[in-house]
Design a protein that fits this description.
12% of the residues lie in helices and 28% in strands. The protein contains 4 helices and 38 strands. Strands 8-11-14-17-20-25-28-31-34-37 form a 10-stranded parallel sheet, with no helix packed on it. A 10-stranded parallel sheet has the order 10-13-16-19-24-27-30-33-36-38, with no helix packed on it. The radius of gyration is 25 Å and the shape is flat.
Length: 336
């Protein structure tokens, strides 16, 4: 079991230590469930009341919250960020190393130093895996793919042919990168498939959630910028471009050829239609539908808020009357 002293953790976070620097810590837990061998954190004042009964060996607090906890503590301006940084120290590493005997690796593949290839993996022709890449069980890496150093694929990830992943990417189970985009041309009653000839390129430090799909480009590549974070079950269509450090929550779908700027956040279950542009710093709230380009930074919403069902049904009926009401108001204004 991994363990760290509080002094080591404080140095890792550049935090102020108050208490016993030799105190050993073997894990992280919530304020409500932490045990003496664990460290916890207060990132939301709604949970401050839990500090009174907290059994944690230490707590990460903002300096202004020092008085809330009598035990060992690390003082940091952003306790939640401190928790995030400590979580990496206690993450469980894979038990296997090297290339598993059941993996199928093409002779033309280039395998860097300290690469891990798990059981049941298939590596296609002319694939390049840079140093420290970790490929989990039953992944499929298509021909001519390139994966940057220290990128990790969990079990059952699929990369179609010609995909380029940057350094330190994390792809969770079930992610599919490079499937065909939804492209068809009408020929009478029939649909003629447009074969997708582009690829997918991701930057560095990208994370892609479980069950998320990123389609390959029709001609140019679909592009995912540096530091982009995609939640589970996100759909990115062909030729979408995501700017650096944009984050997208689960069940959001972005249609083809739409560009999102840098530092955008898209909340869960949003829909963004195709051929749009969203500026840097755009924030879209949950379950919004974006049907036009957004040229200025800021927060945007659509849809109606939750209400008691009988009130919502009454208001929904009134929505249908808005056009008629607007016309009547206009007539009244003209009569004045």
């Amino acid at each position: 079991m991994k363990h760290w002293t509080l002094l080591e953790l404080a140095q890792h976070l550049n935090a102020e230590l108050i208490g016993d620097g030799d105190y050993p810590v073997t894990g992280i837990a919530t304020l409500a469930n932490a045990q003496p061998h664990q460290i916890s954190f207060l990132a939301n004042m709604r949970y401050a009341s839990q500090l009174a009964d907290c059994k944690a060996g230490a707590v990460i607090l903002h300096p202004d919250q020092d008085h809330y906890f009598a035990g060992n503590k690390l003082l940091l301006n952003n306790p939640y960020l401190g928790y995030a940084k400590l979580s990496a120290l206690f993450a469980t590493a894979s038990a296997y190393q090297g290339v598993h005997a059941s993996a199928v690796v093409a002779a033309s593949a280039s395998i860097g130093d300290a690469v891990v290839i798990g059981p049941g993996v298939v590596i296609g022709e002319h694939v390049r895996l840079d140093a420290g890449v970790h490929i989990g069980p039953n992944c499929v890496i298509g021909d001519h793919c390139s994966i940057g150093k220290e990128t990790r694929l969990a079990a059952n990830v699929t990369l179609y042919h010609g995909i380029t992943l940057g350094q330190r990417n994390i792809l969770h189970s079930g992610a599919v990168i490079g499937a065909d985009g939804f492209g068809f041309a009408k020929d009478g009653v029939d649909w003629v498939k447009i074969y997708q000839l582009g690829g997918v390129v991701t930057g560095d430090d990208v994370e892609i959630g479980a069950g998320t799909t990123i389609d390959r480009g029709a001609l140019d590549d679909t592009r995912i910028g540096n530091g982009v974070k995609l939640d589970n079950q996100v759909q990115i269509a062909h030729n979408v471009v995501l700017g650096d450090h944009t984050a997208i929550a689960g069940c959001t779908a972005i249609a083809g050829s739409t560009t999102l700027g840098k530092n955008c956040t898209i909340a869960g279950a949003c829909g963004i239609t195709g051929h749009l542009y969203l500026a840097d710093g755009v924030h879209v709230t949950a379950m919004s539908l974006v049907t036009h380009s957004i040229k200025e930074a800021g927060a945007y919403s659509s849809g109606t808020s939750l209400d008691a069902n009988h009130k919502w049904r009454r208001n929904a009926a009134r929505f249908k009357q808005l056009d008629q009401i607007a016309k009547r108001v206009k007539l009244l204004e003209q009569e004045q």
